[in-house]
Fold this sequence. Notes:
The chain is mainly β. It contains three helices and 14 strands. Strands 1-2-3-4-5-6-7-8-9-10-11-12-13-14 form a 14-stranded antiparallel β-barrel.
Amino acid sequence: xxxxxxxxxxxxxxxxxxxxxxxxxxxxxxxxxxxxxxxxxxxxxxxxxxxxxxxxxxxxxxxxxxxxxxxxxxxxxxxxxxxxxxxxxxxxxxxxxxxxxxxxxxxxxxxxxxxxxxxxxxxxxxxxxxxxxxxxxxxxxxxxxxxxxxxxxxxxxxxxxxxxxxxxxxxxxxxxxxxxxxxxxxxxxxxxxxxxxxxxxxxxxxxxxxxxxxxxxxxxxxxxxxxxxxxxxxxxxxxxxxxxxxxxxxxxxxxxxxxxxxxxxxxxxxxxxxxxxxxxxxxxxxxxxx
Length: 290
């Protein structure tokens, strides 16, 4: 009961202190669909994930986090959105010795059955809108307290006869100044090509683990052009099996849970949209035995 009180009290005070900018968004910017992220845990914790220890979704959140993956792991997640729209993603993280870890990920946002209309509103065949991203990331552990990661992503937009592809390079750092304290930096689209105007996104975050590693709190500041976004999240584990999560994603409340059964983990996240109501994400992770 004491853990539940701590968990929800922190969520409440975070919600009071974080400015609300829910109406500000980057819709229409090339690759905007990647704001949905990868995996499920990070979403339920308000996307405050730059400094969290890694899993396969680190290929997006912070490639340096891959260095904390101990065993090969695969991850899948799915979101059912609105108007025949779905978002699916998958990732794998593979440690190679004690210094190098690589990860591969894929994410796709797809809308089916869009009605084609001409200038006089005559209906033709239906068309699809598909955005796909491939991630290739590497993390190097220089010492126990410092890891650096590099990520490459290839993003494609396909809509009717429109077909556009661009390339982006990301840089991440994960630093552990003292035990149980994590600091992370992630710069996305530091270098890009393909003819599109892609904004550089810079994120800096901190996370801490306490109460015998059963409680995690994280916070993050994100800068896109001149716009600042704020993210914060908490996670409480019970018996190393059940995790209850909550967060604030730049003014939007998020929540979720995770259930770990041996090498398998099932995760769920939910967030509130101002117009469309609740959206849900389900995820699955399998960690291979060492």
